[in-house]
Amino acid sequence: MHLGSLTLPTDLILAPLMDVTTPSFRQLIYDLGGVGMVVTPMLFVPQFVAAPKTILPHLERMEKQRPFSLQIVASGRNPDQIRTTLDYLSAYKFDVLDINAGCPAPHTMKSGGGGGLLKEYHMKGSMERLRTVIETCVKYAHTPVSLKTRLGYLHETEILDLLPLINDSGLDFLTLHGRTIKQKYSGEANYSMIRTVQEKLSIPLVANGDVKDYHSYQRIKSETQCDAVMIGRAIMFDPAVFSRIQGAKLAIEQGKEPISAPSFHSLDEIRSYLIQIEQYIGESSKFWNTERFKLAEFRRLAIWLIKGIPGYKKVRAILSKINDFGHLRDYVFGDQISADFARGQELSDDSN
Ligand SMILES: Cc1cc2nc3c(=O)[nH]c(=O)nc-3n(C[C@H](O)[C@H](O)[C@H](O)COP(=O)(O)O)c2cc1C
Description:
With about 350 residues, the protein is an alpha/beta fold.
């Protein structure tokens, strides 16, 4: 499929998720198939300028995960910093430069970038900083440039005021999450507002918010008429969500019933994901390949993946207390974990 000048293998994009979509986790998702493009979690321009070496580990595996989009956060107060960052990045091969204009996290807002760019419009009626960020990126990036934003800071209609800027400043596409900054993750993504934007937009649209399976993918596509769909939080439970959706599309094309996503994973499946993650971390630079990171990545993924298995709450409590990677590994691949699921199930049955 085409997104502006880009050709993507599918219309499914992996969302940037800070501290979640690490290079190793991205690789797992990528290798499971179905992903049209991956996006790095946000990388802060001032950090690029002050200490670029601390940013480079986040770009690991870039060449193995194409098409690859690199997301930056900039406040627009210092366009020279954006230019320096883009000069630095010109030595690297990636496919899209994405501007974060929607993150509600306090440290991002405080930096003036991310959702801070929408706040400026809401508070002062000014889109100058947003304009500076977009125009500087479009002028100096060596790749297509996209903008990822939300419907507004406080009101869902604020995005409509920004559309002339978005349409006319040389952006290649827009990614729109159907919530406001103030909403954070509460309520439901507003697909009908995304559709209103789509009708007035002259560049391609990626719709985002609450997609977790084929059914919700279909819904966002038909209700927003978007060109592509971005999926974030769902990958924490189902790293194979992209290949599942692609599989469902194929089944439907062939007149078959799509296989629905499982409500929980088998222990064998979970173990196979963890073995892959361990392998990718083993191949990583010293920055990632530490006991501390391995423990955090492995434990976090194990805790997400076991969700829904009968008795998982007991196992989750045990996993969260193990503070040594070797012990964690022994536990996940040993016999005790099955006994603990069974015990957890008995306990939850008792409490019914
Ligand atoms: C833990 C976490 C980290 C996130 N980090 C980023 C980020 O670095 N950049 C960004 O633009 N959005 C970030 N987001 C927002 C997601 O990319 C996405 O827009 C949002 O989760 C809605 O999509 P979903 O309903 O499919 O999860 C993050 C969200 C979560 C939950």
